[in-house]
Amino acid sequence: xxxxxxxxxxxxxxxxxxxxxxxxxxxxxxxxxxxxxxxxxxxxxxxxxxxxxxxxxxxxxxxxxxxxxxxxxxxxxxxxxxxxxxxxxxxxxxxxxxxxxxxxxxxxxxxxxxxxxxxxxxxxxxxxxxxxxxxxxxxxxxxxxxxxxxxxxxxxxxxxxxxxxxxxxxxxxxxxxxxxxxxxxxxxxxxxxxxxxxxxxxxxxxxxxxxxxxxxxxxxxxxxxxxxxxx
Length: 231
What we know:
Layout: H1 2-16, E1 29-30, E2 41-49, E3 58-65, E4 69-73, E5 76-80, E6 83-90, E7 97-103, E8 119-125, E9 128-136, E10 143-154, E11 157-169, E12 174-181, E13 186-193, E14 198-205, E15 224-226, E16 229-230
Antiparallel strand pairs: 1-7, 2-3, 3-6, 4-5, 6-7, 8-9, 9-10, 10-11, 11-12, 12-13, 13-14, 15-16
């Protein structure tokens, strides 16, 4: 009897978490940003500002699925709430918005109970889109890792023009701060210790021939920009 109940429970859980989840189609135009949220999705965050230099306020929104679903990730299955990044350009003809860019993978999901939500904030300022993440584990790691990605719209694409990666050891207070400018192909690394109030900076020229975009850089912390350094 117990085995039978366990079997029935497993079926219910599988059904409720949607093993066959697929991302929805997003409409191409809408009067308001809420028009781009499909059924069962909510707007988790939003930012406004001019991204294409036409003097109008565009929008970037993050959608999150209302319920947890089962997704295959890194040869495993996790229960999580999927997220979608949408970039909407203001339509001067009808004062509405049109869908310009969509990423189903760039906004990290909160699928680990041992850590805080990795997504931190999003902003549009001076014509660029900034997205921030942070890894803070309650157990299992002494490190705090923070990252910021900066995208600019040029030649019809959202190009990654800069990124920062900061790691801090909570026990020793040692830190490393990597700052990348992909337009100048320069990297500055600053190492230091908060307790000792010491720091040292080093610069380096990057060997990068092609700039990453939101389409080619699909997920944070997957690009080995230098040996053993992932953005």
